[in-house]
Each structure stands twice: as structure tokens, then as C-alpha cells.
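Data deposition worksheet. Section B asks for the primary sequence of the deposited chain exactly as it was used as input, without tags or linkers unless they were present during the calculation. Section C holds the resulting structure in C-alpha cell form. Section D is free text for depositor observations; keep each observation to a single sentence. Incomplete worksheets are returned to the depositor.
Section A, Depositor: J.P.
Section B:
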Amino acid sequence: MYPDPPYFLFLAGFLAAIASGSAFSRTLQDSVKDWAAHRSTRTLAKLRGLQLKVPYLGMCLGICLFLGSGLEIFGFPTKLAYAVGTPLTLFTGGLVWWQLGRNLNMLQEGGSRALDLDAF
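Section C:
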């Protein structure tokens, strides 16, 4: 009566998100270290380019697949599961990307002291 739950897609989405997230983290760390060493505005502008967007999009796609198949495992129909997972991923991913841009602008304008949370 019910099709087999998509355990493979669940695991594949999780692993894709983890792999892309580690690439995103490493790229971001290396770019910020490079910026700190040279204090070049071009480095931070380049940071928002394809070099960082590709792993971020991979992470978002993996999370979307993970959420959709996870909902499907719990009994939601496939279309409904991805209709819930896709906007949730897009909204959350957009907010995180926007916040990252704000933090990079604060870093560029005020240095690392601008991100000091203890000052608040």
C-alpha cells in the first residue's frame, strides 16, 4: 500500500549537506584569514562570489533533500514533503546568507572588534 520510505535520499541529503558545509566552512575560514593578512577589500568582495556560493548552494540542496525525505519517512506524501521542505530551506538559507553578508560588512568596516559579542 505504501511505497518504501526514501532512506537513501535521507542519508544522501545529510551527507551532501555535511560535505558541502565543511567545504563552505573551510573556504570561509581561509578567505577571512587571507583578508586579515592583507586587509584587502577585494578579498571580501571575492568572498561573496562563486567560490563561496557553490558550497553554500550544495549545502542548501542537501538540507532540502534531507528535510523532504525526512518528512516523507514520517508519512507525508512526496509532493507535500518537498512543498514544505523547499520553502523552509530557501527561507532559512536566504536569512543565513543575508546575515553572513552583514557580518562580513561589519568585519570589513570595523575589523574583528566589530564582531565582539562581549561589547554588547
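Section D:
The chain has four helices and no strands.
The chain has a mean pLDDT of 85.
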